[in-house]
């Protein structure tokens, strides 16, 4: 498989693995007891993304290419010890950007049927995650306005 397509898939892998949702799964944002159901939802989304990362890593490795797992952006360290409420809007915005990035990767990997199939699955799940995060953010906004 051409190096360019493997690199494209690896960029998506890094984008998912080193995104804000994955960081939120590691930094354990604070959530009040009344919103205790939010963190298990976030943890589920994190686990689903980790499965996507594993599948991409397996595909890249099967092709004989090395996998780069990247690093978190340094600005994420400012988000340690914040509330989930504080992060929700940023999580929604980042998920919108992730979906756009995956769709761009689908264009860039058009000549790679196997990679394209994986990216289509990732895009579908990214949209589902966006919907879930948007619902959490909307519910939080509704709660704070009452």
From TrEMBL:
Annotated Gene3D superfamilies: 1.20.1260.10
Biological source species: Symmachiella dynata
InterPro entries xref list: Ferritin-like, Ferritin-like_SF
Protein name: Ferritin-like domain protein
């Amino acid at each position: 498989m051409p190096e360019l397509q493997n690199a494209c898939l690896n960029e998506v892998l890094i984008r998912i693995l080193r995104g804000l949702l994955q960081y939120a799964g590691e930094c354990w944002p604070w959530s009040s007891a009344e919103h205790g159901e939010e963190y298990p939802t976030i943890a589920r989304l994190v686990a689903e993304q980790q499965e996507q990362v594993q599948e991409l890593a397996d595909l890249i490795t099967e092709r004989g290419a090395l996998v780069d797992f990247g690093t978190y952006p340094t600005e994420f360290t400012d988000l340690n010890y914040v509330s989930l409420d504080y992060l929700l809007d940023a999580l929604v915005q980042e998920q919108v950007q992730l979906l756009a990035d995956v769709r761009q990767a689908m264009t860039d990997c058009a000549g790679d049927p196997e990679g394209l199939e994986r990216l289509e699955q990732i895009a579908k799940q990214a949209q589902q995650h966006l919907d879930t995060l948007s619902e959490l953010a909307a519910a939080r906004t509704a709660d704070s306005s009452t």
